[in-house]
Amino acid sequence: MTKMHTLTPHTDHATDVDDVARLVTEDGDRIPDPELDRWVADIDAEALRGLYRDMMLVRRIDSEGIALQRQGQLGLWAPCQGQEAVQVGTARALRRDDFAFPSYREIGVQHVRGAKPADFVIAWRGEEHSTYNPYDIGTATPQIIIGAQSLHAVGYAMGIQRDGTDQVAAAYFGDGASSQGDVNEAMVFASSFRAPVVFVCTNNQWAISEPVTVQARFPIAGRAPGFGIPSLRIDGNDVLASLAAMRWAIAHARSGKGPAFIEAVTYRMGPHTTSDDPTRYRAKDEVERWRRRDPIARVEALLRSQNEFGEDFQADVAADADRLGAAVRAAALGAVSREPIGIFDHVYEEPHTGLAEQREHFAAYLSGFAPSDAEVGR
Question: What pLDDT was estimated at residue 95?
Answer without folding.
Answer: 98
